[in-house]
């Protein structure tokens, strides 16, 4: 499968053929602003770039940058990127124009996402998958007119080594021996070669012939996978590597021109061959890993600069500077593999688009500004794209056309002088022989093409071998509500008490009623009882008397009757009289008996009545018993109720006490939080002010530098400066240089501190916001701090956090942009070293002496400071000991207080139970409590 990429473009920037159309065109630059992503959101980042919705402009702070296109944020939607930036390049391929798409930006800015070389972000949205679709659509529409051949290669440049990502014969095993970064060699390495006519080719890289879109997609996938597996093993080396996916398109087009002589299509005219390449480049992360170091000004420690990107930047600077370009300044393509491979893409035979990917987060302000500047510089690069048609083919075609033209003129003239004809013939012969010569040459060239590449080994590459591979509360969660609740509870308490009093009152009334009724009944009963008994006795006596009387009367009557009978027997006059008397008496007795009988009947009636009243009395008695039972029950109930109320009251008091305690605690928390807010704001303000001052000073220094870059020798009145002024200006210059360095360090230090502070604030803000949304979780607050944040306090805290975040964000953006300026200056110093302008030995010696003196002074100062620090540390230790002691004491006091509180609550519980529920007086209660606690009101 492996082949030499011999089918490369056959013209170069160094020698563009004058016969072919060559247009000058600038590198197009588009900016893609991705949205804020997860990590940035959790850190509380704000957007620090603003995109104009009408013009393709990005603004950061006061810097406006104009580009060819701006996507994302308020700019055009990213979906238009392919159509506007890349589709014309794909079309150009079919006309023989090379093209390059470069994705530039810091790690995480979305390069891989934009290019579609990632494995996780889906392959549909990236530019490469869209290129594939467009390419095959176009081929389908024109394949009847010409023949096509497609190849792809996919390589990665990692630590200045070119790795083949499509080599399936060797497992991509950069980590075989467990050492990260070690490349395991198993095959001849990929080498960069340059033919004499300046064409760059890769020898040893797999070029896969492609017939379908699916095949191409699988190559992309395979390569991406290889890159990804390699990079996860190597601590994300992919951010340090450049990935280049190259599509080579070869076309064979039949040239069919009309022969004027015979008026027929001349099929013999041959074919036109054309070849073009499209490089799709996912560059390494543009950021420089900066570290401030733990102590001292170790400015450059750990700064990682990707050689390829550095060289690319220098190439862009060289090409982008019109003056330097016109002067024919050297373009350092050879400084890195990347720039060598992309030589044509930058300032050469290629149509090039750079996509600058940026993150809008303020935390990335510095890198974003760097990217924007870098990309803006790239816009100045002038490329010279040329259609890569086969030169000899074209040349021959031209000659044939000329021949045809001449023949036609010859025919037309017909009767011209034989001399003229002779001249013409000679011309024709000459042309034909030239034609033959060229054809032969063409043949030779074609046959030699394969071998050519082997021969054209680049001299510089010689000898270099490249490796390959790579509870109680009931919702009392807030203090405010605590207070409301405690008020409410006292309300509830009053209501309860009132209700209880009412209940007790009504029961008391009921009881009274019952007692009254009982009394009535009892008296009634008594009355009844006494009456009946005496009446009975009275009646019984009377009855007996009556009975006796009746009997005596009857006896008397009987006697009388017997007498009367006796008398009747005697029948004399006296007897007659006595009989009459007797009869009279008898009669009287009879009536007496009758009366008595009547009386007796009455008596029976009365007895009956008496029986009735006895029954009534019995009923009354049971009623009384019943009432008595009721009374007892009621009394019991009253007692029970009173007991319940007492218990309730006690629990209420306990609760109230608890609430009050919590209220105090919450109030304490609130005060603490307020103090924290104030303190944090002050610290932040102080920090941002410090940072602003450092940033301002840095800005001034940088601006002063800009206006007079190397202002050492002040030439006064055309005279060379006096020795003294010269030394003074030298000193001033060096001081300035050193101050810039120190300030950069200071600003960077504060920048990083600010980022930390901001992240902490953001974490708190998110957790507070979550609590607002899901209040049930509020009690599960970590570290137990601010457990009882009321909604109001929480809102206050959120507002204050937000304002702090705003301040922080502005400070970060300002610092980032100044750091970027400083960076740029360092970069320019890279091109023109700092000491370049020191011209005399005397100056150099003077400076050296000055540096020596300053260093000595600085060292002595450092020693003094160290001693100071030592002393301070000792003091601190003493203070710490003291603090520990106080803490121990404090703990003891707290313990004592707690036990006292416990005794108080126990005492309160017992006193409150002995209080009558009706007599409960909260004022006394608190008074007692206070006196027990030893608090004076
Ligand atoms: P880079 O290749 O520059 O290091 P990536 O392409 O890997 O960056 O992107 C970093 C993260 O940002 C990825 O998780 C990716 O999904 C996300 N991302 C990048 N660009 C976008 C975008 N336009 N929209 C949404 N997420 C994006
Ligand atoms: Mg990437």
UniProtKB/TrEMBL annotation:
The lineage of its organism: Eukaryota, Viridiplantae, Streptophyta, Embryophyta, Tracheophyta. Residues 1-22 are annotated as: Disordered. The keyword Ribonucleoprotein does not apply. One of its GO terms (molecular function) is microtubule binding. Keywords: ATP-binding, Cell wall biogenesis/degradation, Coiled coil, Microtubule, Motor protein, Nucleotide-binding. This is Kinesin-like protein. The keyword Cell inner membrane does not apply. PANTHER family: CHROMOSOME-ASSOCIATED KINESIN KIF4A-RELATED, KINESIN-LIKE PROTEIN KIN-4B. Belongs to the TRAFAC class myosin-kinesin ATPase superfamily. Kinesin family. KIN-4 subfamily. Residues 26-381 form the Kinesin motor domain. One of its GO terms (biological process) is mitotic spindle organization. Homodimer. GO terms for cellular component: cortical microtubule; microtubule associated complex. Residues 421-448, 504-704 form a coiled coil. ATP binds at residues 105-112. InterPro entries: Kinesin-like_fam, Kinesin_motor_CS, Kinesin_motor_dom.
């Amino acid at each position: 499968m492996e082949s030499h990429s011999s089918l490369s473009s056959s013209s170069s920037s160094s020698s563009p053929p004058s016969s072919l159309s060559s247009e000058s065109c600038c590198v197009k630059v588009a900016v893609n602003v991705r949205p804020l992503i997860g990590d940035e959101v959790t850190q509380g980042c704000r957007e620090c770039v603003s995109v104009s919705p009408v013009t393709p402009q990005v603004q950061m702070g006061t810097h406006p940058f104009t580009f060819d296109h701006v996507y994302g944020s308020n700019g055009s939607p990213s979906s238009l990127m392919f159509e506007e930036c890349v589709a014309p390049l794909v079309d150009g391929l079919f006309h023989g124009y090379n093209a390059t798409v470069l994705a530039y930006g810091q790690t995480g800015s979305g390069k891989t996402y934009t290019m579609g070389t990632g494995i996780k972000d889906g392959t549909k949205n990236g530019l490469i998958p869209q290129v594939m679709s467009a390419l095959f659509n176009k081929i389908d529409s024109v394949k009847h007119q010409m023949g096509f051949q497609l190849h792809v290669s996919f390589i990665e440049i990692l630590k200045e080594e070119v790795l083949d990502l499509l080599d399936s014969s060797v497992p991509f095993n950069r980590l075989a021996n467990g050492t990260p970064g070690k490349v395991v060699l198993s095959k001849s390495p990929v080498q960069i070669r340059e033919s004499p006519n300046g064409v760059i080719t890769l020898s040893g890289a797999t070029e896969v012939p492609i017939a379908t879109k699916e095949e191409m997609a699988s190559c992309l996938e395979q390569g991406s996978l290889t890159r990804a597996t390699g990079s996860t093993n190597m601590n994300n080396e992919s951010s340090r590597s450049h990935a280049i996916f190259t599509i080579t398109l070869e076309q064979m087009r039949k040239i069919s021109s009309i022969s004027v002589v015979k008026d027929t299509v001349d099929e013999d005219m041959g074919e036109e061959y054309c070849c073009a390449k499209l490089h799709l480049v996912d560059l390494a992360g543009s950021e420089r890993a900066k570290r401030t170091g733990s102590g001292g000004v170790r400015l450059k420690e750990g700064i990682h600069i990707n050689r390829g990107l550095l060289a690319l930047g220098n190439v862009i600077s060289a090409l982008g500077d019109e003056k330097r370009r016109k002067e024919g300044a050297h373009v350092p393509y050879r400084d890195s593999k990347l720039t060598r491979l992309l030589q044509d893409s930058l300032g050469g035979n290629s149509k090039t688009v750079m996509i600058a990917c940026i993150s809008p987060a303020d935390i990335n302000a510095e890198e974003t500004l760097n990217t924007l500047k870098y990309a803006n510089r790239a816009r100045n690069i002038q490329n010279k794209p040329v259609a890569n048609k086969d030169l000899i083919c074209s040349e021959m075609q031209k000659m044939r056309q000329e021949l045809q033209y001449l023949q036609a003129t010859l025919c037309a003239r017909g009767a011209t002088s034989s001399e003229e004809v002779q001249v013409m013939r000679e011309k024709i012969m000459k042309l034909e022989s030239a034609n033959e010569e060229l054809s032969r040459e063409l043949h030779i060239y074609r046959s030699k093409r394969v071998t050519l590449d082997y021969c054209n080994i680049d001299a510089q590459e010689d000898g270099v071998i490249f490796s390959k591979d790579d509870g109680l509360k009931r919702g009392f969660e807030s203090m405010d509500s605590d207070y409301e609740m405690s008020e409410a509870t006292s309300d509830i308490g009053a209501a309860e008490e009132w209700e209880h009093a009412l209940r007790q009152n009504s029961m008391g009334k009921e009881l009274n009623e019952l007692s009254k009724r009982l009394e009535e009944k009892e008296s009634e009963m008594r009355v009844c009882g006494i009456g009946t008994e005496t009446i009975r006795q009275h009646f019984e006596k009377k009855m007996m008397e009556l009975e006796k009387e009746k009997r005596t009367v009857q006896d008397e009557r009987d006697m009388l009757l017997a007498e009367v009978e006796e008398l009747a027997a005697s029948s004399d006059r006296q007897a007659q009289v006595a009989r009459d008397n007797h009869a009279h008496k008898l009669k009287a007795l009879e009536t007496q008996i009758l009366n008595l009988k009547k009386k007796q009947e009455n008596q029976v009636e009365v007895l009956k009545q008496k029986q009735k009243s006895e029954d009534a009395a019995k009923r009354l008695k049971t009623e009384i018993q019943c009432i008595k039972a009721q009374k007892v029950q009621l009394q019991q109930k009253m007692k029970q109720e009173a007991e319940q109320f007492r218990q309730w009251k006690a629990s209420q008091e306990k609760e109230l006490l608890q609430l009050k305690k919590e209220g105090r605690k919450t109030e304490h928390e609130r005060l603490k939080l307020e103090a924290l807010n104030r303190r944090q704001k002050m610290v932040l303000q102080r920090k941002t002010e410090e940072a602003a001052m450092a940033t301002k000073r840095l800005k001034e220094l940088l601006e002063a530098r800009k206006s007079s870059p190397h202002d050492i020798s002040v030439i006064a009145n055309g005279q060379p400066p006096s020795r003294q002024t010269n030394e003074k200006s030298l000193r001033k210059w060096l001081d300035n240089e050193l101050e810039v360095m120190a300030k950069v360090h200071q600003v960077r230090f504060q920048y990083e501190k600010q980022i930390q502070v901001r992240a902490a604030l953001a974490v708190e803000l998110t957790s507070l916001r979550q609590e607002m949304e899901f209040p049930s979780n509020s009690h599960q607050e970590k570290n137990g701090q601010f457990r009882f944040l009321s909604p109001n306090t929480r809102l206050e805290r959120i507002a204050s956090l937000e304002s702090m975040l705003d301040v922080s964000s502005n400070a970060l953006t300002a610092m980032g942009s100044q750091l970027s300026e400083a960076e740029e200056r360092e970069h320019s110093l890279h091109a023109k070293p700092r000491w370049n302008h020191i011209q005399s030995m005397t100056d150099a010696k003077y400076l050296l002496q000055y540096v020596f003196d300053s260093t000595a002074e600085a060292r002595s100062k450092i020693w003094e400071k160290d001693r100071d620090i030592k002393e301070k540390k000792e003091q601190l230790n003493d203070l710490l000991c003291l603090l520990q002691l106080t803490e121990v004491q404090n703990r003891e006091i707290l313990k004592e207080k707690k036990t006292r509180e416990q005794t108080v609550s126990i005492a309160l519980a017992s006193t409150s139970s002995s209080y009558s529920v009706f007599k409960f007086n909260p004022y006394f209660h608190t008074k007692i409590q206070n006196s027990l606690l030893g608090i004076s009101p």
